Structures are given as C-alpha cells and as structure tokens.
C-alpha cells in the first residue's frame, strides 16, 4: 500500500505584515486547513487521488479570500473569467476550462470535460454551454463579488495596468496570490493534480494563463503530480509543471531535486512563483522563489497531521 499524501497551495505571494490582522491571518489559515482536511479524509477512506484533489480545490473555490471561484479577481469589464485544470496521472487523462463565467466550481467542470467529452480543454462560451447542458452549478454575478477584489480593480484601472494577483498594491489588504491548487497520492500510489484561478486583475483580450494548459501549470503522470502558482506567462515558457516530471524521468532525479531545479530554471527566465508536487511514495515538496507561498501538506509520514 502506498503512503498517502496531500499538498495544497493558495497562491504565491505574501500578505503584507503592515496590513495583516490576527483575524485575517486566521481566516487564510482556516481556509487552507479546512480544504486539507476534506482531501485527507477522502484519502484516508481509501478514496482516489482524483476525488481528493477535486474536493480540496472545490473547498478553496468556495472560500472568498483565494483567487479562484468565488474569490476570483475582476477583469477590465468587471467580470470574473475563471480557468481550471484537473489531471489523473494513473490514466494520463485531463480536463480543463478557460475563461468560464458564473461557474461555482470550475474544477468540477474541468473534470466533466475529461470524463464526458473527447476533448481536454473547453473555453469561453463553449465551455459555459457545455456546463448548461450537463447541469453544472452556476451562481449570479453577486455571488462572486468581493470588496477587496473590486478595490484592486479600481487601483489597477486608475494606474492603467494589468495587475498580477501577487503584485503589491497600495490600498488593498494583501499582496494577492495567483490561483490555488492541490496534488495527491492515494493508497494505490495513483497521482492527481488540480489547479484553479481567476487570473489577473484588469486583464483584457481573453487572456489565458498557464493554469488550464496541461504540462504548464498543472500536470500528473506515474512519476509525479504538480500544481503551479505565479506569473503564468513564465510557467508557460518554462513548461514548468511537466519540467518536474521530465527531470525525474530523464535525469533520474528525486522529486525534491527535480522541483528545485525546475524553480531554478524558472528564476533564470525571470519567472516568479512556486509549485507543489508529490510522488508515488508519498513524498511532498513545495518550493518557491517568490516572497512567499500559501501552502500546506499532510502525509502518512507526518502522522496525518499538517506540519
């Protein structure tokens, strides 16, 4: 029996100490811990890594402080356009959606793309039409409105810039993160990864980042499962999620060494962010080169308790 493991990230970046309150910090930690417990309970019951990563990400998508689902940032038009990807490493199958609107849990829609269509990625109106046909839960615009995200949009528009989710802003309470994700290893040693994001504040032109693109922001096979967070364009250029698996397969590196080299390469091409990864032996690594990364893990080695 494989050693089960689960890792999670709430995005790269930090909340500024001067703008952090004890209550707000507790909210962030509480959101991560709740999601970790949900996924871990599935793994402990002998559930699949795929079920575990979906449920974990759904919990975070429902939590308004993280940039995905309900907490997604606003586009230039004042809307939320969400991306998500899920991948089953055992079957080497994946599903993804890009710039979908009003979908409560984009990661669940991504899984349905994988399981109910012959495609990997559906985008925009087509993805929303598919969601309507199969009865996926939606929410009105009001459900996705959060004041701190709205203030970030106003600041970005006033400055005439597109704002990375982890870029420092003067008035809002955080150095916001880019997306969220989770990776898992189940009792069979099967791996899965899921990643979800609201993208960039004030983005235009239907921009799609690394999150819904297999091998760039999200990847899983028999070697490892990886979920990335940071400046998506650089993760696209570095093929970052797959790069970890490639270094393990072709260089014979351990999970930790492969992930470390991948982040070093990201730094070399001026990318900022981090990743979480797990292998079939239940090893976990969570490297990053940004100021910080909201993250956590539970493994059989830790006795089923977060570090």
- In CATH terms, the superfamily is (Glycosyl)asparaginase
Q: In CATH terms, what is the architecture?
A: 4-Layer Sandwich
Task: Tell me the β content.
Answer: 15-25%
What's the Cα radius of gyration? 18 Å
| SS summary, helix count | 9
For the record, give the distance between the C-alpha atoms at the N and C termini, rounded to a whole number.
Answer: 23 Å
CATH topology: Glutamine Phosphoribosylpyrophosphate, subunit 1, domain 1
User: Going across the major beta sheet, what is the strand order?
Assistant: 4-3-2-6-5-1-11
Total beta strand runs: 11
Which shape, going by the Cα principal axes?
globular
Query: What average pLDDT do the residues reach?
Result: 89
- H/E series, N to C? EHHEEHEHHHEEEEHHHEEE
Q: Report on the biggest sheet.
A: 7 strands, mixed
Q: Structural class per helix/strand content?
A: alpha+beta
Question: Domains counted in the coordinates: how many?
Answer: 1
User: What is the top-level CATH class?
Assistant: Alpha Beta
Helical content class: 25-40%
Contiguous low-pLDDT stretches (5 residues minimum) are 165-176
Architecture overview:
The protein is α+β, with helices and mostly antiparallel strands. It has a single domain, classed as (Glycosyl)asparaginase (Glutamine Phosphoribosylpyrophosphate, subunit 1, domain 1, 4-Layer Sandwich). It has 9 helices and 11 strands. The longest helix is centred in the first third of the chain and has 23 residues. It is globular and about 50 Å long. About 4% of the residues have low confidence.
